[in-house]
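Quick one, probably user error.
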């Protein structure tokens, strides 16, 4: 079972968007509390939306848990955080990355 609880595309600024997705899933080893989520922070540059940061608890190379994908990095950073904390974290990380790109 996978039931959508939340699916939002929020415009934060003319060039910034936050996509929030939350699903109710069957309780399992991969999803012990029965929730799957993903946050994406997108930045508009050179006529296209670019994913700056993604935080999710979806399987990554067969491994479960919360992890962070960042622009221009093949590696992910594994972390312990929930859905709500992920929103605060993704906004801070994305703005820091964007500041570095625009220097």
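Nope, works fine. Designed sequence:
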């Amino acid at each position: 079972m996978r039931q959508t609880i939340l699916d939002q595309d929020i415009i934060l600024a003319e060039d910034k968007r936050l996509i929030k997705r939350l699903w109710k899933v069957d309780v399992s080893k991969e999803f012990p509390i029965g929730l799957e989520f993903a946050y994406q922070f997108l930045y508009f540059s050179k006529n296209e939306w670019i994913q700056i940061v993604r935080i999710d608890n979806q399987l990554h190379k067969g491994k479960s848990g919360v992890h962070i994908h960042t622009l221009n990095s093949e590696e992910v950073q594994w972390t312990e955080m929930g859905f709500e904390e992920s929103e605060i974290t993704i906004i801070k990380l994305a703005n820091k990355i964007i500041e570095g790109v625009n220097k």
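The radius of gyration is 14 Å.
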